[in-house]
Amino acid sequence: MSHSLDEFADRLQEEINQEVIQTYGEKVYERWRNPRFMGRMEDPTGYARVTGSCGDTMEIFLRLQGELISDASFTTDGCGCSAVCASVACELAVGKKFEEVPDIDGEAILKVLGGLPEDDVHCAFLAAETLQTALDACMSPEKPSQRPR
Ligand code: FES
Predict the structure, then answer these.
(1) pLDDT digit string (tens) for 115-144?
(2) Whose CA is closest to atom 3 on ligand 1?
(3) Phi and psi for 143 in degrees, rounded to 5?
(4) How far is the centre of ligand 1, averaged over its atoms, from the C-alpha of 131 (Å)?
(5) What pTM value is reported for the model?
(6) How many angstroms is it from 96 CA to the middle of ligand 1?
(7) Contact 79, 101 (CB under 8 A)
(8) Based on C-alpha coordinates, what's the Rg of the chain?
């Protein structure tokens, strides 16, 4: 009984995986399965919490070491694409000099992913906006509104 239930669940998961690959491509699928940089960060240098027009909320945490972004992480209560895009935003930021991060915009995130379906393009721009807001917060980390809650 549970054996056939397991088989059913495996088949269902495989169908979902194939549908995601068909719709979003391999790059998005890999990141959806393994979103790097996910999670909260203790004592970030900069933090932002942004709610997009879709109603989803994303958080990005940045740590500065000298002039470099040494670490980044994110959380999101949004769609799978929001996690994928936030993950890419963090990946693009880590190791960059502080002044290079403003170049990371929605288009840069979309480029890494090889594009997204039209309905999901805004997820990349939400990730970029959250990253840039966290970068701004690095310059005024004591602002209470920009501390993690
Ligand atoms: Fe809101 Fe993707 S639908 S971030």
Answers:
(1) 999 999 999 999 999 999 999 999 885 654
(2) 79
(3) -60, 120
(4) 15
(5) 0.88
(6) 26
(7) no
(8) 17
